[in-house]
Specification:
The complex is a heterodimer. Chain A is of the alpha/beta class. Chain A contains 10 helices and 12 strands. The longest helix of chain A has 17 residues. Among the domains of chain B are: 106 residues, Aspartate Aminotransferase, domain 1; 74 residues, Molybdopterin biosynthesis moea protein, domain 2, CATH 3.90.105. In chain B, helix 12 packs across helix 14.
Chain lengths: 286, 483
């Protein structure tokens, strides 16, 4: 007997991974949580049937959501992470000694518990003493925060499910309020390729741009996400992600990475023409 | 309540059987289980089109129910604590009209609060019954009409002992309940029927700790909008009757105006919603109240907004408040309710039930989740941060006591002349003017047009309310009664 995990990337496209065995399956009351073991990708976590991370390629996502903004804002002391229950984002943040406080807001405690048990590679980050975990809705958490954070990372699920509120105008407005004057907001920005994802990506981008003068998009190659081509949004009130990055200083930090490097930092903001077109009808608006 | 009985859903079960039997249809509807309209089938789904059937023997007939519809109505009557129930496919509008036609003939009087839905006044136009209005009073700060004070009802009864019935909103659009038990007692002591417009009160029958339902208070008839908070399809509704009513008479009245091709989509939705509410209603509405209370607490933390609830109760014109309603007063942030309502829709993709001049109303029901509550609260927080302004220039509006010069029917059918609304002060209106929502008339046929009313209409227009009711689609001209 063969066991396959399949994710419907579009109504007409499926992505399948051969599964050795199921390690965990349960509904948390908020979402369906599953952990599988596979030969190709090691263990992987799915939420509501959608791929969140695999042991094999999670480094790409987590390095790119963390090191791009942190290289721009190397003096960050307070960081807010929304979502990220698997711990991978916090694991990368913990490598910056200058950070004094990391607040992580995860709506589903069971995701954290399951990851601690089955995905220790990412969940190891959750033991950092600078970390405070809040189990609540991210939208609710930021509502009363004013001028508190240097960096906000939105490591959310897709905008159809519990993460929906994290792609809304009210959320980005509240993040703007919660950020300090030279703060940086990065969110996972969906994929530009399939129409369904591209549309939510474009809407998210337009909404962020209403609040932030600097609003750019960068890309990464994540093999297990729909189309493999994934985007992140970089937003700030003042800092340009390419012009204001001090690459020499970042390299001196001695953080070893497998995907991110400071050449890639500059290169990842260069996007294919069709992506510029989806984002705002052309490159000039970038 | 017999739980085994409530687990049944006879109309739904009959539709499943009909589908299973693969009956060949040489009857209407012509789409023949969707085959004749592929685009519609693709849009609504094969399952939906396959049960859009016409009345036939195994499916009974709403005009003269003897089998599955009859059984479904019997079970619904039990669930609601009524003697009989009637499934309605012409909205609660149809149910309200059937109530009034059942007990008031032409020229007979009915006592009712002025803040009734237009459907009730339309029923008076059709029947020729005469309204005796009880001033519902108004909350000065919120500008919303309230319930009926039993003393005012007693006075109206004393002055009109020949009235046939009393109509009570239970609750009003804004969630305010009168003392329906006491008013029912007053009505029955005077030999009058008690009719309840429960368009917004379905949940009273199933939740704990909610205001009293009309049937449990002893009312004779109640129009219940299952589709509003009970989960059935839009336009489906239930008319309930008490033991004093002749059900054959009521059925005959309903059949005067209701379609002979009642939709099985609507009727099965009533059947399944009743089953869900009867079996799970307590838990569902406890959760709804919990969410509404949570939203009120969170919105209070933002500051500037006022979420009213049972704190309004005064034992008389506000006997109880329906805590599932999330009503929010917005004038203190310098925005009319309608303005907040429009910003939420246009900028935040959040649709509320209504925005009037000073309030917004969010309806919470069987289908809500806390995720959406968080979005609403956060959007309100942002609207205050980004759009609030000085409240100067916002008028406090008040309930305007109508001056009824002639009966609605006489005014509706009178010889008329058409003139500019702004020049019409002193004339008698032959038409309705309403701001939608809530659809409560500012002017009804037969009422005097005053300078105050014209000013109120213009202010509503300026704040973005949708005005309706007149032949003139722009509500700039009005038909007045020629005298």
């Amino acid at each position: 007997m063969e066991l396959w995990y399949s994710e419907q990337h579009t109504p007409n496209v499926r992505f399948s991974v051969k599964v050795n065995r199921t390690l965990y399956t349960a509904h948390s009351g908020i979402q369906q949580i599953d952990v599988f073991d596979s030969r190709e990708f090691g263990r992987f976590l799915t939420l509501d049937g959608l791929m969140m991370l695999t042991e094999k390629d999670e480094f790409i996502y987590h390095e790119m959501i963390v090191h791009v903004p942190m290289a721009v804002k190397q003096d960050a002391k307070t960081v807010l992470v929304i979502g990220a229950g698997d711990g991978g984002t916090v694991r990368e943040l913990a490598r910056y000694p200058g950070i004094e406080r990391i607040d992580m807001v995860e709506i589903d405690r069971e995701v954290v518990d399951v990851c601690r048990e089955f995905l220790p590679g990412t969940a190891s980050g959750l033991d950092d003493p600078r970390l405070n975990i809040f189990y609540e809705d991210g939208l609710r958490f930021v509502r009363d925060k004013v001028d508190m954070y240097d960096v906000i990372l939105v490591d959310s699920t897709d905008p159809f499910g519990p993460g929906e509120g994290l792609f809304t105008r009210e959320f980005y407005g509240n993040c703007h309020k919660a950020l300090k004057a030279d703060g940086v907001l990065v969110n996972q920005h969906e994929s530009p390729y399939y129409d369904y994802y591209a549309d939510s990506m474009r809407r998210a981008h337009m909404r962020i741009r209403e609040f932030f003068p600097v609003c750019k998009v960068y890309q990464a190659h994540i093999p297990t996400y729909p189309s493999g081509h994934w985007l992140f949004g970089f937003a700030s009130k003042v800092l340009d992600p390419v012009d204001s990055v001090d690459t020499a200083a970042w390299n001196l930090l001695g953080i070893t990475t497998r995907y991110y490097n400071t050449d890639l930092h500059k290169g990842c903001f260069a996007l294919p023409t069709y992506v510029y077109d989806v984002l705002d009808g052309g490159r000039d608006g970038q | 309540m017999n739980e085994n009985l409530q687990r049944r859903a006879p109309i739904y079960e009959a539709l499943i059987r009909t589908k299973r039997d693969r009956v060949v249809s040489f009857d209407v509807p012509g789409h023949k289980q969707g085959r004749g309209n592929p685009d519609l089938t693709d849009f609504l789904g094969t399952q939906c089109l396959s049960v859009d059937l016409n009345s036939r023997k195994p499916l009974d007939n709403l005009i003269h129910p003897v089998s599955v519809i009859h059984k479904a109505e019997e079970i619904a009557a039990e669930a609601f604590g009524a003697a009989d129930s009637f499934f309605m496919v012409n909205g609660t509008t149809g149910a309200v009209q059937a109530m009034i036609f059942s007990v008031c003939k032409s020229g007979e009087k009915i006592i009712l609060p002025r803040n009734v839905h237009r459907s009730a006044i339309n029923a008076l136009i059709l029947s020729g019954a005469e309204p005796v209005y009880v001033n519902p009073g108004v909350d000065k700060r919120l500008g919303i009409p309230l319930g009926m004070d039993p003393d005012d009802v007693a006075r109206a009864i004393a002055e009109n002992p020949d009235a046939k019935a009393i109509l009570v909103n239970n609750p009003t659009y804004y969630g305010i309940c009168s003392d329906i038990r006491k008013i029912t007692g007053l009505a029955h002591d005077a030999g009058m029927y008690l009719l309840a417009d429960e368009a917004h009160g379905t949940h009273f029958y199933f939740g704990d700790g909610l205001p009293e339902s009309a049937m449990s208070a002893g009312a004779d008839m109640a129009a219940v909008s299952m589709h509003k908070t009970g989960g059935s399809l839009t336009q489906s509704s239930i008319l309930l009757t008490g033991a004093n009513m002749n059900s054959g008479h009521v059925r005959k009245i309903i059949n005067l105006t209701q379609t002979t091709s009642a939709s099985y989509l609507l009727m099965s939705s009533l059947d399944l919603s009743r089953r869900n509410l009867a079996l799970n209603g307590k838990g569902i509405f406890a959760k709804v109240v919990e969410m509404a209370d949570y939203a009120r607490a969170e919105i209070d933390k933002i500051g500037g907004y006022y979420c009213y609830s049972h704190d309004l109760a005064n034992g008389r014109s506000i006997f109880e408040y329906d805590k599932t309603k999330l009503s929010i007063y917005t004038l203190d942030i310098g925005l009319a309710g309608k303005e907040v309502h429009d910003i939420l829709r246009d900028r935040y993709d959040i649709q509320l039930e209504l925005g009037d001049l000073a309030n917004i109303l969010a309806i919470l029901s069987v289908g809500d989740r806390v995720f959406e509550i968080e979005r609403l609260v956060s959007a309100l927080s942002e609207i205050k941060r980004l759009h609030s302004r000085d409240r100067a220039g916002m008028i406090d509006h008040e309930y305007i006591e109508p001056i009824v010069d002639i009966k609605p029917k006489a005014a509706f059918y009178a010889d008329k002349s058409n003139m500019l609304l702004r020049d019409a002060a002193g004339m008698i209106s032959a038409e309705f003017v309403m701001a939608y929502p809530p659809g409560i008339p500012i002017l009804a046929p037969g009422e005097r047009i005053t300078g105050e009313i014209i000013e109120y209409i213009e202010y509503s227009r300026e704040k973005g309310c949708i005005l309706t009711g007149t032949e003139d689609m722009n509500v700039e001209r009005i038909n007045v009664v020629e005298v």
